[in-house]
Design brief:
By secondary structure, the chain is an alpha/beta fold. It has 13 helices and eight strands.
């Protein structure tokens, strides 16, 4: 097995283009626990957006580059259960019995979503964070149903000083983003986002947290449009607070 103290980081499109601070905070936390972080500046998209829109040939071309960009035998850590879950689950379909079949299977063994890596590989739950706010947590569809993330985010949040977690009603329901679903089915997507935000507001929380910035962006758009008294925040940014 590769060393947990020597890792590659995967920076998805949303983090790179919209939420770069979350990527920096991921590095900050990893380095605090003695991890040597490697960043391949040539890396690009994992191909999920094209795949979900039906452009499988284009997605496969992007996926081939992704496999080659992470061809070393190190753990790969990313701040998105959606993107990492896509690589773990759908590359099987794209690269089965191909020239990259073996390389993909090594990649699949090595790639982890950040909270899973912290809890189950580094075996760290208390990162020393302080965040004196009431929060609620959104379980993204990809985290639950594709990546199969369980209690890792909540175990990390339970150790954050000053943080109070209040679970919202129907916290495992979709927020309505769903990648290009939000564009193709705007009315349905907006209604689902509205329900999610109403459930979060009912808890009295100040922040909605998640492992997926895409879901948070969708929810923040609804919040901003309606001037609602709640904000979204990636769990990594909370874990990097107060130290």
């Amino acid at each position: 097995m590769p060393s947990p103290l020597d890792v590659d980081i995967f920076i998805p499109c949303f983090i790179d283009q919209v939420y770069p601070e979350t990527g920096f905070n991921m590095v900050k936390i990893l380095e605090k626990f003695g991890v040597k972080v490697h960043y391949n500046a040539a890396q690009t998209c994992c191909g999920q957006a094209a795949f979900n829109s039906g452009y499988w040939d284009e997605a496969k071309a992007v996926g081939e580059k992704f496999i080659r960009d992470f061809s070393g035998n190190r753990y790969i850590v990313g701040p998105s259960a959606s993107c990492v879950g896509f690589v773990r689950n759908y590359y099987d379909e794209m690269f089965y019995n191909s020239a990259l079949h073996n390389e993909y299977h090594q990649l699949k063994r090595n790639i982890f979503e950040f909270t899973d890596f912290m809890v189950n590989i580094l075996q760290v739950e208390d990162v020393g964070a302080t965040f004196e706010h009431v929060v609620t947590y959104h379980d993204s569809c990809a985290a639950l149903r594709e990546y199969k993330l369980t209690d890792q985010p909540r175990r990390l949040l339970a150790q954050v000083r000053g943080l109070e977690l209040r679970e919202m009603k129907d916290n495992k329901d979709c927020c309505g983003f769903g990648g290009t679903f939000a564009v193709k089915h705007e009315a349905i997507s907006t209604a689902m986002g509205e329900q999610k935000i109403e459930n979060a507001l009912a808890t009295g929380a100040e922040f909605i947290l998640s492992t997926d910035s895409s879901c948070l962006m969708h929810q923040q758009g609804y919040i901003d449009k309606h001037n609602l008294p709640i904000k979204t925040m990636h769990i990594i940014d909370v874990l990097a607070s107060g130290w």
